[in-house]
Amino acid sequence: MSEFIIKDEDLSSLKGKVVVLTGGSSGIGLATVKLLLSLGASVVSGDINPPAASESTETPAFLFVKTNVASWDDLTALFKKTKQHFGRIDCVFANAGIGPRANYLALETDDQGNLKEPSHELMEVGLRGLINTTSLAVHYIKDQPEGGSIVLMGSSTGLQPLRAVDYSAAKHGVLGFGRGFARIADVAGLPIRINTLMPSWTTSNVLPDLEGLMRGISHVPQPALVVARAAAYLMADASRQGDVIYVADGKYKEIEKTVLFPAYETIKGEGNPTDDEVLKRLLELPAN
Q1: pLDDT per residue over 22-57, tens digit each?
Q2: I need a surface site. Which of 118, 123, 143, 176 has the fewest CB within 10 A?
Q3: What is the distance between the alpha carbons of residues 265 and 130, in angstroms, rounded to a whole number?
Q4: Hey, what CATH topology would domain 2-283 get?
Q5: Residues designated as active site
Q6: Contact 133, 69 (CB under 8 A)
Q7: CA distance 20 to 82
Q8: Which key words tag this protein in UniProt (predicted)?
């Protein structure tokens, strides 16, 4: 795998940039907010809750907009207010997420004894909200000559079987969306880079008292700042496009070009076109 390091100087180009991120009041999102502010960027955070008063975000370069990413109206307001306040949007980090919610093995019943549909709350926040955030980011960035960057928050759980099925399914979806969207952005000639993060266990609020739970099983999650630095790096490095970055034990590895796509090339059969190549040919057929 292509392992790399992130130096402080790699992030210096973020000074003066305007960054929108979701889920910026805790965990990885909050760590990213504080890092970006320290680098001289302006940051707009969309979250259901504001950052705690104890967090050092009181600066004219920071704007909080109350946002439920499952609401299209909230997301459109987040981007509109950012453009009105700072005049532009350079980078977007679609980060908001919640922990597992659904139980597919034991359906609940309502007061009348009728079976209730399993919860789709995690899908609404972690996948649908991310897709909508990305679509709005493209709308606001695509007409800027210098373009911009979009970073998607996936998870290492999107690379493996996981017994928290709704969380795993959402993160598998993020991976597929990021890989496909990076391809279509290239085809469309958009000046926008799309990259996806796939971090392993990280200090966050996805599970209540995560650090305490981790201590109970003698497993140490990586600090949120480790992943925040990866998010900032993908915003700053103009050479990164269509990458999938696995983050574990404080180390960074690019796995799209070194693991995932090469694995597909190996199993599809020699001489066979990729599914995307077949789709390209279909789209190029003359209309009847």
Answers
A1: 999 999 999 999 999 999 999 999 999 998 877 767
A2: 143
A3: 28
A4: Rossmann fold (3.40.50)
A5: 167, 171
A6: yes
A7: 8
A8: NADP, Oxidoreductase
